Amino acid sequence: MKHLQFTDEHGSFSIEQPENTSYLYFPLASEKGLKSSVTPNLGGDAKIDQETFLLEPVSAENLHNNRSVRNFWLVSDTGEIFSASGASAQQEASRFTELQDDSRITAGFMWHSMERISKSQSVRTVVTSFIPVNDNAEIMYITVRNLSDSAKVLIPFAAVPVYGRSADNIRDHRNVTSMLHRIRTESHGVLVRPTMSFDERGHRPNSMIYYVYGCSGAGEAPESFFPTVEEFLGEGGTYTHPRAVCERRTGVPSGSFAAGREAMGAFRFPEVHLAPGEEADYILILGAEDNRESISQIYEKYNTPDKVKKALDETKSWWREKVNTGFHTGDADFDRLMKWICFQPFLRRLFGCSFLPHHDYGRGGRGWRDLWQDCLSLLLMDPDGVGQMIEKNFGGVRIDGTNATIIGEGDGNFIADRNGIARVWMDHALWPQMTTKLYIDQTGDVEILNRKVPYFKDAQTCRGTQNDEQWDAGQGSLLRTKDGEIYTGSILEHLLVQQLTAFYEVGSHNIYRLRGADWNDALDMASERGESVAFTCAYAGNLRELASMIRLLESRSGEKEAVLPEELQILLNGDAGLFEDPDAKNALLADYTQSCRHQISGGHFSISLSVLADDLERRAGWLTGYLREQEWIDGGADEGWFNSYYDNHGRAVEGFFPNEVRMMLTGQVFSIMGNVASDEQIRRITASADHYLYRKEIGGYRLNTDFHELKFDMGRMFGFAYGEKENGAVFSHMTVMYANALYRRGFAKEGWKALKTLAETALDFDTSRIYPGIPEYFRSDGRGMYHYLTGAASWFMLTMITQVFGVRGEAGDLIFAPRLMGEQFDSQGKASVSLVFAGKQLEVIYENPEHKDSGEYTISSAACEGYRLQTDSAGYAVLPRKVLDGFSGDHLRVTVTLN
């Protein structure tokens, strides 16, 4: 029997005895800002932002160390104690014995329910936790049932420790900041309002009120309170053996006040009498608000079981409707896993890359790369407003081709860098264009290239190598002309600036410099001589795609010329001989960055769109030939691969070394995706990847072989143990991009192998030890790590829809180009995907009665609501946008027959 069982088609699941597995946690969040994590014993934390933690911040190791969890205690009239969270000394002592509680987690999108049965006391509790969509309140709905044949008298205690301050204070002035607490009990709970936000750079008055409220389902208020940790635990007591509970103490009354102590949202309810089979219920509400009235309103909104159940149903419905993409294949568990993968981008939008136990290195917000890759999933699930979002996001680009790296609150708000360090990630110019290309394909809105947006401006200039002493923060964060006017340029212009400046910033091998790092942030110690072959391949593909976008703009708009700032004439030097000379390239780039170091002239010039496209294609062609000749490693015996990097000593990092072979996956992904690798080279690359990198039992393709050295001339990744994170783990993001690249080039069998192995490992709970979804990586023993907040989810969903099922836009039209394998069809030979395109909810059904593999079948017929689709020169079925828009209904079915 599988440990993890799906319980419905929405991906809801259950696990027996979840406390027997370490490091499990589940995310809860609202659209308003509250973000929580919940463990099987109701540990974890809750916060609104870095400065506003309701519960104590936790990292992964705290999950089994901490006992200061959300708890609900029951004490019988004979003195027996039971914790609904399982966090009592007696229950922990009985774990892994025949006396262990029966327990089960059941969970779905943004709700989590823990059922626990005490074998010794014949009591069952169910604690259901969720956060309503539009409130900053975590609700715990608790039911208690008497399973015995005799009546029971129980005294319930609620206990939630309130941290109530910045995460920084967990180690910085923890005790001092407790002195700021002002704690008050009211009829239904405990309120904590610190006097100030403690920050030695500048203390600020505090208005935030943290609270824990509660009542019984019958409307009874608590009868007494324990507003401080010391009062609840008692001298010598612990969170698993609190004296207030064990000794059935009576706390202080409503209206009491305490100050300068660690706060506790703990209270005692009146004793309850339960006949055999009878049930009682309780409601706990915990949250943070900046005024007392809002807390009262929240309490009134959720203070009865009916209100809570209604809110729970609304929460479930909200998130299920958000995940408006669904899959039907021959594997029902895979289909339900895909529901979670499609949900993960929403979690990343809410949590950023922080605020979950493994993601303890961030302080909130998303990075530049995250911003653009998360848009990929939005274009497939929630496309409304993505065009405006893209426009605003381009405002983070600097005129030197670099960009702000941290995104502030809302769209179009940027911060130079989280840590105030001038850093350039050389891959950052890649992602905006990829996202814009998908947007144009999905919508047909090529005119977005003409829309005007500003440039980001700060003291960092000349691609992070100099400071602009003339810049004054009082001028704002927008680039200006010499006349002091805010300068705006087209999105096409922004893309050209990004791609062309990258083209000229090369190292001694004429490969794009690595700088601070590329996609792999852990390659951060080769800034002087490091070069990224992998992303040079990716940029070659970008140059080709940008050229195609320009040609589409010309054909659709009738425009013949682009108007660009006069400084860009430097970058558009058409001398092909320059391409071969790294020193000349760097000198040209320096001329350009100096010309716009502080401001831009405001002058313009015109250039033919066709000439511009030709120029970009010429650059891409030169790069392709150069990379194929210089960077290919012949592995012999039908194997081979591309070198991915040069280290800080200028040496190639991959190839055949004494006693070992060094290979990295990244260079193979982007040489395939960027159309640098030929078909024959792809066949040899896949053979090499299967030979040196593939480990089925731990998720599939490792990021690299073991280099057996610390390699301080490349990056911190080589200090990690081999098989951990960027050093040789199965890194989901790059594996999915490998699959995506293979599908794009027609290698469906190889692409499916990569996706399938990831999915199978994630679903094998005995190996992965995670709830459903794709983690950032699988470590050396196959355990899933850094769950939920990974760009791999967006790419997995993108690949499944646009490549595996082949349902994708091309300049606004919808094409059907399936690359499904025979095993992906159900027993009747059918597979389907539901998704939103052009404002229509589509169900696309493929019929393959003979279960043929991709490459063996062609499209024999295709129809949408009676309209027969034509096929193009590639054999794909095409639904023109004007025809799609002409259908009156919002729900359409497309049936495609394969033979």
UniProtKB/TrEMBL annotation:
Pfam families: GH94_b-supersand, Glyco_hydro_94. Residues 638-806 form the Glycosyl hydrolase 94 catalytic domain. GO terms for molecular function: carbohydrate binding; glycosyltransferase activity. CDD domains: GH94N_LBP_like. It comes from Mediterraneibacter catenae. PANTHER family: CELLOBIONIC ACID PHOSPHORYLASE (PTHR37469:SF2), CELLOBIONIC ACID PHOSPHORYLASE-RELATED (PTHR37469). One of its GO terms (biological process) is carbohydrate metabolic process. Coiled coil: none annotated. Residues 66-304 form the Glycosyl hydrolase 94 supersandwich domain. Keywords: Glycosyltransferase, Transferase. The keyword Transferase applies. InterPro entries: 6-hairpin_glycosidase_sf, 6hp_glycosidase-like_sf, Gal_mutarotase_sf_dom, GH65_N, GH94_catalytic, GH94_Enzymes, Glyco_hydrolase_94_b-supersand. This is Cellobiose phosphorylase.
